[in-house]
Amino acid sequence: MTNPKDDPEYDEFCDPDNPRKIKFEDILAASRRVVGQVIKTPCAKAHMSKRLGMDLYLKEEFLQVTGCFKERGVANTLLLLSEEQKKYGVIAASTGNHACALAYHSSQMGIPNIVVMPIHAPITKINKAERLGGKILLQGNNMAEAKLFAMTTSKEKKMIYINGYDHPNVIEGQGTVGLEIVEQVPNVDAVLCPCGGGSLLAGVAVAVKHLKPDTEVYGIVTDKTYSMVEALRKNERIFLALEPSIADGLAVNKVGVNTFHNVKGILDKMVVVREDWVARAIMTIIEEEKVVVEGAGAVGVASIMAGLFPNLKGKRVVTICSGGNIDSTTLTRALERGMAADGRLMKFKVTVSDRPGGLADLCSMLAGMGVTMRDCVPERAWVKGDVFSVQMKVIVETRGYDHSRQLVELIKKHYKDYYFQEMNEKSEKTAGVKRGPCLAPNPVCMQK
Fold it and tell me: Does the structure show a pLDDT above 80 at 429?
């Protein structure tokens, strides 16, 4: 019989046969330990509170130096290393926020570090981790191969491998967010927490439930990053094939050993929100709160906007905006997708006269009702009817669904041939989103 410890991927801190229990006292100790290492971020009341029908507070973790809450867990773990461990250094496999946090804090403390990334990792992430002090090694075609290389290297060089979402000291560090929330919003009724591998959710749940047992804690995932939902439903950690997600910070195909065992029994519910709503939330947060958050940081606001929390109307709610590291390309796509989902971008086809003044009449009509033309492509070869007509493929910007409907009526009134994509505002607000099964042993929502 082989010894599991001989497996190159065996991690004594994340052992399936020996999950670690996260204690409130250790989270409290971590909060004192990381003072001066990480920023105590604001928990500001959102301008959109009145419109959403609740007192909504945003825990602004995107204000950390590297733009993400991951610094808390990394700093706590590094500060707990022995002098000998600090001499050998630390290693991790990551392409995102954990890589940047490890690079920054280990270089600040003078601890040797290695960050292993797949060979196809985005160049922007490689450059950022290097700027923050990381020694980058490109190995493997995917994260699984990069992690195998990192763990093998850790054993060969006696370096400490730091799992970004399951190391016990990492979870304790993330739990300091929960302590700050209770301190900053003492009468909080509910906390909405993004969940990928689960370190933030586990730490926050332990901290908040210890201090305020009646406060509801919800884990939020998207319909493409729901490995924790499936794990809790089946009562075992399962492998979930990943699709590209706007909330790439939540894209973990198998949740952590320790996180899974620590959220069971104390979490109130897991909630799944559709990715279109995340794009919409990113846009709304930028427009109304004047801050930029990444997809993972916007899922809490997205779930509220999607109507998944009617039980929280009139309550005091904190949503954790876990990070702000979104690249410009993804941000552009998110804003475009958000505007389309919000009914503010509209495309249609209309056949107009191909004689002088035909297109000018259409443009004049759009301008007259305050509609901005974003794009316009003429199609002449495949138009049915006379040769003096041209079909225009048009993309316009409107003020919303009501404005778009006015445009539809105007086009129908003045032209014979047209085609509009179905506008489905009602179903947009209700379809494709769900709440998971209740997980609390004694549900607070049933008592109120």
Answer: no
The answer to whether residue 18 sits within a structural domain is no
CATH, residue 100: 3.40.50.1100
Q: Are residues 182 and 150 in the same domain?
A: no
My answer on whether 301 and 385 are in the same domain is no
How many separate domains does the chain show?
Answer: 3
pLDDT at 442: 45
33 and 153: one domain?
no
The CATH number of the domain holding residue 369 is 3.30.70.260
Please identify, among 339, 362, 386, the residue that sits at the C-terminal boundary of a domain.
Answer: 339
Report the alpha-carbon distance of residue 343 to residue 276 in Å, rounded.
12
Q: What is the pLDDT of residues 382-418, one digit of tens each?
A: 887 778 889 999 999 999 889 999 999 999 999 988 8
Q: What is the pLDDT of residues 57-83, one digit of tens each?
A: 999 999 999 999 999 999 999 999 999
Q: Which domain holds residue 199?
A: 24-69+169-339
- Other CB atoms within 10 A of residue 174 CB: 34
Question: For 199-248, what is each residue's pLDDT tens digit?
Answer: 999 999 999 999 999 999 999 999 999 999 999 999 999 998 888 889 98
Residues 245, 335 share a domain: yes
Cα dihedral sign, 331-332-334-335: positive
3-state secondary structure the chain: CCCHHHCCCCCHHHCCCCCCCCCHHHHHHHHHHCECCECCCCEEECCCHHHHCCEEEEEEHHHCCCCECHHHHHHHHHHCCCHHHHHHCEEEECCCHHHHHHHHHHHHCCCCEEEEECCCCCHHHHHHHHHCCCCEEECCCCHHHHHHHHHHHHHHHCCEECCCCCCHHHHHHHCHHHHHHHHHCCCCCEEEEECCCCHHHHHHHHHHHHHCCCCEEEEEEECCCCHHHHHHHHCCCCCCCCCCCCCHHHCCCCCCHHHHHHHCCCCCEEEEECHHHHHHHHHHHHHHHCCCCCHHHHHHHHHHHCCCCHHHCCCEEEEEECECCCCHHHHHHHHHHHHHHCCCEEEEEEEEECCCCHHHHHHHHHHHCCCEEEEEEEECCCCCCCCCEEEEEEEEECCCHHHHHHHHHHHHHHCCCEEECCCCHHHHCCCCCEEEEECCCCCHHHCC
* Same domain (yes/no): 185, 277: yes
Query: In this structure, are 239 and 307 located in the same domain?
Result: yes
Quick one: pLDDT band at residue 144, thresholds 50, 70, 90?
A: confident
One domain for residues 139 and 255: no
